[in-house]
Amino acid sequence: MTMKDSQVYHIGGRKITVTRKNLQTEQENESSSASQVRPETMERITTPELANAFIEEQVQAIREQVGENGKVLLALSGGVDSSVVAALLIRAIGDRLTCVHVNHGLLRKGEPEMVIDVFRNQMNANLIYVDAVDRFLNKLRFISNPEWKRKIIGKEFINVFEEEAQKLKDVAFLAQGTIYPDIIESEKGVKAHHNVGGLPERMNMTLVEPIKFLYKDEVRVVGTALGLPDKMVYRQPFPGPGLGVRCLGAITRDRLEMVRESDAILREEFAAAGLEGKVWQYFTAIPNFKSVGVTDGKRTFAYPVIIRAINTTDAMTATVAEIPFDLLQKITARITAEVEGVNRVVFDLTPKPSGTIEWE
Ligand code: XMP
């Protein structure tokens, strides 16, 4: 069969150029990820011994897949899945893995620092830290529609990541923290399979997905066995668009700092009260309107902060967590005293449905 060097297709409004090279890569991808079904014989990983056996097996599999000189790239968000993949790959191929951590300005307080500390300082990873804060916030200025915000954040993330990838030479593999629920949900059409939306299709690289048959609880057991800190392994879910969907309406830098600071206080107080790991997800959000208040006898006109704390098993429905009232009062006192620009705190009593977990 003969084929022109490239062929352009228009699919779903997107222009896709298929070249000989990426056609081959797609075929390789298909065969390398031929099985998307967890083997029935695979034991559930619940103990350090089972985790260590899995790690050994995957280290071998990664070495075989990428060969002696193959280089791998990974977008490292600091979430549990990408962190476990990073730690596995570091063990398998050391500095032939390049991790790229993009700070889009919408991360929680202390997160970029933790990624740098754990991976660069403790694990000796080859880590590129990209400060893209201004770039993202400038793109998001005046954008109040939540879905547009998500799209802009996702698209800009890919742009930044691709730019970093282009600076590197001879990197043929792209690692991803795909886990088994991602595959199942993508098959059911609930969400797109790849958690860094659209990257693999555009980047023409072969995928390395060492945890694709694991459930979340197994990923955590493996993460602990790899030596990752509990803070990283047991962290609560955090959306890709981050604080961007918790700074309601058009994102402003002052309100973004208010949501970041109030979230840090909330997490600190929940941890001190022993609620870490007991409440499924908790965070603050900040609306884009002010209310009247009074501080030290003086009228204030400042923002409210919303506390959300929910329990769920699958995030499809959720109940409101029962938080001791004195703890809520303490958190309120700290937020109104310590976060400049906030004069009021409210607690969201809405289950899902009718509210979603996030406000946007
Ligand atoms: P909702 O708000 O839909 O949230 O009830 C359900 C779960 O999904 C998280 N979430 C997201 N995660 N990108 C993500 O990666 C997103 O755009 C996004 N929106 C919501 C949310 O934090 C909750 O755990």
Structural features, described:
The chain has 360 residues and is an alpha/beta fold. It has twelve helices and twelve strands. The protein has a five-stranded parallel sheet with strand order 5-4-3-6-7, sandwiched between helices. A hairpin with a 7-residue loop joins strand 10 (298-311) and strand 11. Helix 2 packs across helix 3, helix 3 packs across helix 9 and helix 11 packs antiparallel against helix 12. Residues 150, 237, 239-241, 281, 315, 352, 356-358 line the site of xanthosine-5'-monophosphate.
Give the neighbour order of strands across the main sheet.
Answer: 5-4-3-6-7
Whole-number average pLDDT?
89
Present as ligands are: xanthosine-5'-monophosphate
Shape, principal axes of CA atoms: globular
Q: What is the quaternary state of this protein?
A: single chain
**Number of helices, where a helix is a run of at least 4 consecutive DSSP H or I residues:** 12
Main sheet summary:
5 strands, parallel
Residue share in helix: 40-55%
CA radius of gyration is 22 Å
User: How many angstroms does the end-to-end distance come to?
Assistant: 51 Å
What portion of residues belong to β-strands?
A: 15-25%
- Please trace the helix and strand order, writing H or E for each element: EEHHEHEHEHHEHHEHHHEEEEHE
Structural class, from secondary structure content? alpha/beta
Poorly predicted parts:
1-33
What is the number of strand segments? 12
